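Entry 12.
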Amino acid sequence: MNTTKAQIVATIGLASKEKSTIKEMVLNGMDIMRLNFSWGTYEEHKNYIQNFREIGLELNKDVKIIQDLSGPRMQNEEGHQYNNDAITLITEKDIKDLAFGIENNVDYVAMSYVGDKDDVLKLRAEMEKLGKVLPIIAKIERKIAYINIDEIIEHASGIMIARGDLGNEVPLEQIPFIEKDIINRCKKMNKPVIVATQMMLSMTQNPLPTRAEVTDVAYAIVCGADAVMLSEESAKGEYPAEAVNMMHKIILESEKNALNIKINNF
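Predicted 3D structure (tokens):
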């Protein structure tokens, strides 16, 4: 398989829990496994980690794991949203989950609902208490985060443009241009950036993406994204391995047609 400069992050869940499925996803181009700690048990996550590491050794591939902390979220009919009444951004659950992640050697920690640099610094301080400081990926999903984007990029190890929640706080028609602006700012500061959420959402139930989704992934790569991410498509969709494969093909074609893209690998 031809390798890409940009990386593929795929979320593991009930649809992709089997070791054989995870292996197929790696063979199809998955570079980084995302574990969403809003769902699942420690036993399930530990099993995903063990399988992924074993597959990496078997295939001689340097695989990485992102632990995505849930933060102060509230469930609603549409899914979830930021809890505006939260006193602190780092919940007791997050601290327990963080201890689990450090104990099980995750590579990165994604922080939900970051608002400013202080949030990143507070999470780093919690890691210091636990004895190990991991790279922090700041998720940009609030309007205040975009306002404070430069200081967040400066203090985080990487950025995730989480367009789902972000689309609840800014007009949807602004999302493509906010995405491009954040990518450009990350490039100037030499920090890697992931574009995430609904990239190929129709593949949750269909074996092929829409033409618009293909264009969306290509747009992210042409803009200079260092990684693109699958969420529901790989966590609970019917075609997790096929979604990775399609994303890989889109990245290859995009990189072929945009030769001067600078990529910062995670």
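Annotation: Strands lie at 7-11, 32-36, 64-68, 73-76, 79-82, 108-111, 136-140, 158-162, 193-196, 227-230. The chain has eleven helices and ten strands.
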